[in-house]
Amino acid sequence: MVTLAHISDIHIDDTPRSVDRTRAVMRHLAALPGPLAAVVVTGDIADHGLVGEYEIARELLDSGLPTIVCPGNHDDRQAFRKAFLREEETGQGARSGSGDGYGDGYGPVNQVLRLDGLTVVLCDSSIPGRPEGYLQDETIAWLDAVLAESPGVPTLVGMHHPATVLGVPYVDEIRLREPERLEEVLRRHPQVVAVLAGHAHTPASTRFADRPLLVAPGVVSTLLLPAESTLPIPLDLDLPPQISLHVLDGDRLTTHIRMVV
Predict the structure, then answer these.
(1) What is the pLDDT of residues 186-195, one digit of tens each?
(2) Which of 57, 64, 194, 197 is the least crowded, having the fewest Cβ atoms under 10 Å away?
(3) Prediction pTM value
(4) Taking every annotated instance into account, which residue ranges of this chain make up the domain Calcineurin-like phosphoesterase (predicted)?
(5) Which domains does the chain have, with CATH numbers?
């Protein structure tokens, strides 16, 4: 049995609020008495994509556990590589992949983490300067190749943007574009147990490509449903940060949501 912590949308900025909430989450994980296999972080690490924000985030997320992180729509690929990944230091055991071999730093930041009996693959769904998501051709090809390397190993595939509607109009308008391209890859690889995402700032579960699609809650805030709020962007800043804990037992994945108070 393997347990992963899944966090998302920490949005580190120049205020103590985001730092304090992220620190509380990491302290909670460190205090758990049972073993965690890894920490998965599905994007929006920095609020403004600044080098200083990534330097703070890197220190906060340094738990000593294997950690894999992908960018979100608030992130800047160049600054993310420079200040968070430090280029060759790819997230404590995670392997980075980019079709341009980094080049000018603007190519997608794709990551794979291989654990004992489990592979976690994170794709960069960010579009520089845009809120919605898209998996570039090189990312789609990279994902297909990575999944082909270990056909018998249970695998989680994740990214920042959810690949389907969640019933929250604000998020649904800026979800992953052309998700059928991702679906085609997943259907070729039956070892993919579930798809992970962030972006929505609310815990949610639905289906995509005949698999669970599991959205992590937001650390910095919680987005409310239309039934819960009439605001155009219904963010609740007062609810405590939340995390997901994914438990993989064989090919069965069970998800638990925890508030950090």
Answers:
(1) 999 999 999 9
(2) 64
(3) 0.92
(4) 3-203
(5) 2-259 (3.60.21.10)
